[in-house]
Amino acid sequence: IFEYTSHGTGKRAYVPAMSLAANASGADGLLIEVHPEPDRALSDGAQSLDFKGLQALMTSLRQMAPLLGRKMS
To answer: How far apart (Å, rounded) are the C-alpha atoms in residues 51 and 37?
Structure first.
């Protein structure tokens, strides 16, 4: 099961919470839009994380994985 958390929310501020919720509910993968400068992206910038935001989200997901009995690769 894959979750497209960027399009599911449409807003960058909600992507981390939706990603964590999808992971907790059993998603095997997440599709997250990333752009070096989301506000300048030609499309989907409003729902894209920048690299710093992605790094923070990945840290949270890695911390959460063992609590759920899951591994990240």
So the answer is: 9
pLDDT of residue 6: 83
- Hey, what amino acid is at 43? S
Nearest to 41 by CA among 52, 49, 53, 29: 49
Mean pLDDT of the chain: 92
Q: What does the pLDDT read at residue 52?
A: 98
pTM equals: 0.89
Q: Which residue has the tokens 């935001």?
A: 53
Question: In the chain, which residue ranges form alpha helices assigned H by DSSP?
Answer: 5-9, 15-24, 51-64
d(CA 66, CA 27): 15
